[in-house]
Amino acid sequence: MEMIKTVDLHKSFGELKVLKGVNETIEKGEVVSVIGPSGGGKSTFLRCLNLLEKPEEGKIYFEGTEITGNLTKEEKHMIREGKLPKPAKVDIDIHRQKMGMVFQHFNVFPHLTVAKNITLAPMMLKGKSEAEATQMAKDLLNRVGLLDKYDEMPSNLSGGQKQRLAIIRALAMEPDVMLFDEPTSALDPEMVGEVLDVIKGLVSSGMTSVIVTHEMRFAREVSDRVLFMAEGNILEKGAPDQLFDHPTHPRLQDFLAKVL
Amino acid sequence: MDFSLFLPNMLSIWSKYWQLFLFTGLKNTLILTIISVALGTVLGTLIAMMKMSKLKAIRFIASVYIEVIRGTPILLQLYVFYFVLPNIFTFLKLSQFMWVSVSLCINSSAYVSEVIRSGIQAVDKGQTEAARSLGFSEGQTMLKIVLPQAVRNILPALGNEFIMMLKETSLASTFFLGDIMTSYLVVKGVSYLTLEPLTIVAIIYLCVTYPLSKLVEKFGKKMANPNSYRNRKLKAGGKI
Question: Which of A38, A90, A131, A160 is surrounded by the most beta carbons within 10 Å?
């Protein structure tokens, strides 16, 4: 079953074209890593998926629903002729509840306790009772080994702990897919492992995940599929072994020669 | 000039007029300041919202308002509100004191709006992104995530605005409105002394502004520490 499908996604920042027609489908249960050089559009692609960046052109289907509200030329024409009803406005907030996102810089809420960081969204948005949300927070904290930090403020956490908190904060919304935007890039080297372990545990439990990462070994280990993005498009994709061992696109060969 | 009488004169003026200085002058100064900063904060919040509006026209109006108020002297604004506007809005039966209050309030609102706007914009954009990615609406994000953090930036600056305004109200004495500087003018008129009452007035101002600025400083430092959220709640005996 298709979880996310993008069709001809275009995004630019001013003059700079960052995405130039990306077509990709992510299946339910699939773990997809996105690798590639900086400025190649990886993060922008990921951020488009939950509309933190709004693509100017192209469509995104999330669990079958088109969420961008973008229309093709033909569709605009047909609507003008009255052959197609005007599409209903999409409430992106509802869809975002089902797409967890983890950021490079954690973005935990510094004014809330660790527990509140986790319970705020489920209580406000999903109407969970305090008892339910608290229990869930404890379970999640326990799962990532942070239960003793329950009452702490995030400023008392290390980078790795903050990122683990950010991951379970997203999980508390019980999302259908998790988007990771370079989750270990801002971490001290000795903390990378603990965060990757949490992600590993998560994907092995069957969570559909899209992971933008520079950790090649990790990408190879956990992914079902790897996408190589550069120059605003997916230049090569495939199973990790094939992509890493037998790269065909010269741009990918060049990239791998530099990073491996 | 003979300074030998300075201290005795000052003491005698103080003992004769201390009620005028404190119960009339300081009282009116404080009333003017509190009214203008309080209403200025309300109005300033509105202007800040307008300045951050998605609609260009509304942003433009807010910008013009802020630039005009901040770009012209406060004395000029007071003249307009004291001499010009009452003749135009004759149906508004406001006292002179109120006209001056309104003028100071509008002046304050322009500065406060910038304080609020920059306080909000200083909150890391990642906070908004994280909240939106969880599914919070724009309004919920502002209310639950951005504003509580912006307050940390805004409150100390608002304290400074209060201190600034306290001093600015001295301009109200131009219209003899009973603030501390007016007390000075009165005392000067009856005693023919200048330096002594001026010194008294200066001391009164300092007695208010110095502790206030120390308080703001201390508060600002505490606010800068994220743990203060927790400490404040603990002190209040609240659950975390």
Answer: A160
Report chain A's C-alpha Rg in angstroms. Answer: 19
In the predicted structure, residue B202 carries a pLDDT above the cut 60 = yes
Provide the terminal-to-terminal Cα distance of chain B, rounded to the nearest Å: 65
Domains defined along chain B, listed by start: 3-235 (1.10.3720.10)
DSSP letter at A260 equals -
CA pair distance B234, A251, nearest whole angstrom: 57
The bridge status of strand A177-181 relative to strand A99-102 is: parallel
Minimal CA separation from A226 to chain B, in Å: 24
pLDDT at B239: 47
DSSP code for A129: -
The structure's pTM equals 0.84
Each residue's pLDDT tens digit, A81-126 = 888 888 888 899 999 999 999 999 999 999 999 999 999 999 999 9
Please state, in angstroms and rounded to a whole number, the distance separating the CA atoms of residues B157 and B49. Answer: 18
Token representation of residue A199: 């992600």
Q: Check CB contact under 8 Å for A155 and B227.
A: yes
Q: Does residue B237 surpass a pLDDT of 70?
A: no
Residues of B in contact with A111 (CB under 8 A): 148-149, 152, 226, 229
Buried/exposed code over A76-98 (b: 16+ C-beta within 10 A; e: otherwise) = eeeeeeeeeeeeeebebbebbbb
